[in-house]
Write a structure and sequence with these properties.
With about 450 residues, this protein is α+β, with helices and mostly antiparallel strands. The chain folds into two domains: about 35-285, SGNH hydrolase (Rossmann fold), CATH 3.40.50.1110; about 310-450, Galactose-binding domain-like (Jelly Rolls). It is about 25% helix and about 25% strand. The chain is built from twelve helices and 18 strands. The protein starts with a strand and ends with a strand. The relative contact order is 0.15.
């Protein structure tokens, strides 16, 4: 496997079922991981059975398993909000559990994905543990999109979690511990997302979940201090499983890496079950603990930053209320988009359908947008198709970057910050096809803006 840091590009060869330790994050001290690991393809139902033929079956009922799961509880945190959600469920009242993250939250590696990913499994465990009857209104919102960091999550939150104001979750699980290596803000977007969730009208409990890659890497050291800062419940899959990976079964080993990981990024069904059981352990511990009287303190100074809390999505659907645009040659709408199975759906939902696309026949006209804001994030489409080319991005007449959809090289949503300023001001953004790409395609999926 080769990694070009200048282009954030990975060329990976994976032999199913064998640990890969030669990628850039092979050392747990390595600061960066892959920018956009994609969902695995061709997942077969017999994969897990094949792993169990090589390694001893996992004893999900044994004491060693329970001890391993208990190690995942990084912080019980202030339990006032989570206790409130649990008590609502016990009374038979509606409770909504939301999950936002990358491909692991999406359910990658699980089969069938809609019901065997950790999000659905942990929601189902919560429902079975606390619902007063089989028909109790415990609801699931799953908003995992493969290969995307909190820099994109902050843009998606209102749309994908709050469903544009129609939902008010009682619990929000945030999982970006293996997706934020490419976060330009190095934690500011993550903390902003946490605060955005905490500040919701329903005052939801926010749980920070730290998944892990096959090489034992994640960004827990960067992101967990945010949880400590606000005393939030935190669950670390890394803390639960990594130490025991090196142990034989008679020494306390519970599951092998071969059994836990489908590939170098994503869990198998067994891995997803462990993640769900770790969240369920938090639910159990919280249920039997005395309630905290005081709520989480969110009005204190941020640990890393809160500059992106007020980020909103701008796309073709609402742009006229926010900015002035001339679409130029970007007048078409792209329908070949990244798909994600949301909630418990068995079908994919197109991501950022209200977009602007330049095509081979669009001509040389460029996209121009004038907007008053402090911060602006561009979301554009990556693609593995040779029909797509690069675009030059200018802000206030100055070259900002050249957006290359082939850096990641699969159909994927890519976010990049165009400007970040302390005061709101009027800015003009121009997007035109780069030299040599005039007759290629390029898709502007949308923008995230802070007024």
């Amino acid at each position: 496997m080769k990694f070009d840091k200048s282009k954030r590009k990975f060329l990976i060869t994976v032999k199913r079922g064998f640990p890969m330790t030669d990628h850039p994050a092979a050392s747990t001290n390595e600061a960066r991981g892959p920018a956009a690991p994609r969902d695995p393809e061709n997942r077969r139902e017999d994969d897990q059975a094949a792993e169990d033929m090589i390694d001893p079956p996992v004893d999900f009922e044994g004491q060693s398993y329970r001890d391993m799961v208990a190690k995942s509880l990084l912080n019980r945190g202030n339990n006032k909000r989570l206790k409130a959600a649990i008590e609502k469920a016990k009374r038979g009242e509606p409770v909504t559990i939301a999950y936002i993250g990358g491909s692991i939250t999406h359910g990658a590696g699980a089969i069938p994905l809609p019901v065997n990913g950790y999000a659905y499994r942990s929601y189902d465990l919560f429902r079975k543990r606390f619902a007063s009857s089989e028909g109790s209104p415990i609801r699931l919102i799953k908003a995992g999109v493969g290969g995307t960091p909190s820099e994109l999550g902050i843009v998606r939150y209102d749309r994908d979690v709050l469903r544009d104001g129609t939902e008010n979750p009682d619990i929000v699980v945030v999982e970006f511990a293996v997706n934020d290596a490419g976060d330009e803000t190095r934690g500011n977007c993550y903390e902003s997302l946490v605060l955005k969730a905490l500040g919701g009208d329903s005052r939801p409990a926010v749980i920070l979940l730290f998944s892990v890659f096959l090489n034992d890497w994640n960004l827990q050291d960067r992101l967990a201090p945010v949880g400590w800062h606000y005393d939030l419940p935190m669950v670390s899959i890394k803390d639960a499983v990594v130490e025991q990976f090196s142990l034989a079964r008679d020494q306390g080993g519970v599951i092998s890496k071969r059994q836990f990981f489908y590939d170098i990024y994503h869990p198998t069904n067994s891995g997803h079950q462990i993640m769900a059981d770790c969240l369920d352990w938090l639910f159990e511990v919280t249920d039997r603990s005395a309630p905290d009287e005081e709520d989480v303190l969110t009005d204190q100074p941020p640990l890393i930053g809160n500059d992106y809390v007020q980020t909103r999505l701008l796309d073709r659907q609402n742009v006229d209320r926010i900015a002035q645009i001339d679409t130029g040659g970007f007048r078409e709408t792209d329908t070949d988009l990244q798909l994600a199975e949301m909630d418990d759906h068995d079908y994919g939902t197109p991501q950022f359908p209200h977009n602007w696309m330049h095509t081979a026949g669009s001509g040389e006209g460029h996209f121009t947008m004038t907007i008053r804001s402090k911060r602006l994030i561009l979301v554009f489409k990556d693609s593995g198709s040779s029909d797509f080319g690069s675009a030059e991005i200018r802000v206030d007449g100055k070259h900002k970057l050249t957006a290359d959809p082939h850096e990641v090289n699969w159909t994927h949503c890519s976010a990049v910050i165009l400007y970040d300023e302390p005061e709101s001001g009027q800015h003009t953004v121009e997007i035109r096809m780069a030299a040599g790409s005039e007759h290629k395609r390029f898709t502007i999926l949308g923008f995230g803006y802070v007024l």
